[in-house]
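Recap from last week: sequence in, structure out.
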Amino acid sequence: MAHIPKLNLFLDVNMPQLEELTDQLGKDLGMRQGTQFKALKLLLCNMYIQGQRQVRVSRRKQPLGGKKDNPIDIKYSAINSSLDKLEANGYIIQELGSHEEKKMTTMMPTERLMQWFEDTGWSDEGVDKRVGTYITLRKAKKDNGKSIYIDYEDTDYSKWLSEEIKKYDQLLNSSRIMLLNEDGTEDREFKKFTVQRKFIRHNFKDKNTEFAFGGRMPGPWTNLSSELRKNITINGQPTVELDRTASHLNAMYQVITGAPYPYDDDPYHIVVDGYPVPRHIAKNFSSFMQGSKSAIGTAHSVINHYKYKALKVKNPKDKDIKKYEEYIEFKKKVMPLDIAQAILNKHPKISKYYNNKKVYGDLISCWESDIVFEVVMELTKRGIPCLTIYDSFIVPLEYEELVDNMKDITPYINRRGLPKEVFKMDNYNDN
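Predicted structure tokens:
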């Protein structure tokens, strides 16, 4: 089963006749406030585009952002009111979420609403995107568990980046991206989405660092399982997913030394006291060390990571349970701190860039996302649609060799003009 898409705040009715019909529906539902009508249109657009399937929508009392993140100026209270009126009149099935279970509310159109769409002449052309921004910026720290997005002032870099993402977004939205069922029939089409790079604001005085932390670029396909992603087609062609090799670690080498990892062996291959460390354990230690305060902090993060994936989620995957059990057994042979030290010993050229707190970890993450985006820009120039899953690329099968040759050697380019001081660890403060 495919993952449930999240409410898209950038959708709006694009035809006067549909707007009139939607307003009439709102009146029939007992709506009186202008904010409710706007929320109704947003909900209807999302359900029409997604078809007869669930859409995740938050009912939490929280601001939905400024003009960049919420260009239609939708209020959470109007969304909640519209959901309840649609449900009460038999137009949607609403399943309320649970904060304790970390489960969002979902809505799904009923046959009555699907028939209303058909009777009133809704079409893809009647739904348009009102893109507020191709870049989001949020505060590093949450406020009572809520992410706080910033309606930032544009810089030269953000203007340039927005234009590049827009080109990429337009290429993808002009392509036919389908998810197939196992029998080859169509499950859903990804359309009317907006690609964004998502940055984190940290305390650093140089203006060029406003968009230098985080920067990943998720799409509506990101949370699909690896097995489901194999069923994605682009313009009717089968696809292949290609991962960057040791992506975060390689990004460190590319930025700090100017070249990828220089040897032919696996950069995560380490041996401690004669025991080869399972690759997934070495990889997790390396990953958590990039944003941890210390080797001890890394050890705690790794065990908590395994515990969460194996024991805390509602339906843990068999592979995650096996990895957790393997790590518990391996800890009886090898001390976690020795694993961390072995990583540092294997990578002396970049060792001092490990264990420098979360802020620096977010900087390293941005190095990786910048390199990924360099590949995306080159493919976009060539008219080749490419979907990214953090550090991997989903492309039509015919471009497998091309992208496989690009993904690990494409260089990091300092397009922000970051000063050398930015890369010094003692310039950062957790906030």
